[in-house]
Design brief:
single chain; two-stranded antiparallel sheet; 58% helix
């Protein structure tokens, strides 16, 4: 299953729901919990019932169970384009430095 970018609050909520705990995770405020539940509902990983700013009921969907089984550590996806761009920049700087060093060595002889 393709990885989905999740915030740390969303990861906490998913882990607690996987354990069977539907309460607010320890150390998380109610507003952050509500935002995480609404976001996870939009991503269709959980099903929830809310009333204004209060969460009434939450449960994992089959997609949520499958996502937790396929990605148990809940790692976010890697942006390979960014990694390749940084590697290209490092290679360009190294090539430029090598050019300067070789020119300086030639000029010294």
């Amino acid at each position: 299953m393709e990885r989905i970018r999740l915030s740390s609050e969303e990861k906490k909520v998913l882990r607690e729901l996987r354990r069977g705990n539907t309460d607010v995770p320890h150390g998380m405020c109610h507003y952050a919990y509500f935002d995480a539940v609404v976001s996870l509902t939009g991503k269709r990983l959980i099903r929830s019932k809310t009333n204004y700013d209060k969460v009434i009921d939450t449960r994992l969907t089959p997609k949520g169970y499958a996502y937790m089984n396929g990605n148990p550590h809940l790692w976010n996806p890697v942006n390979w384009t960014m990694v390749a761009a940084i590697a290209a920049c490092v290679a360009a700087v190294a090539a430029t430095l090598a050019l300067f060093v070789s020119c300086a060595a030639l000029a010294a002889t």
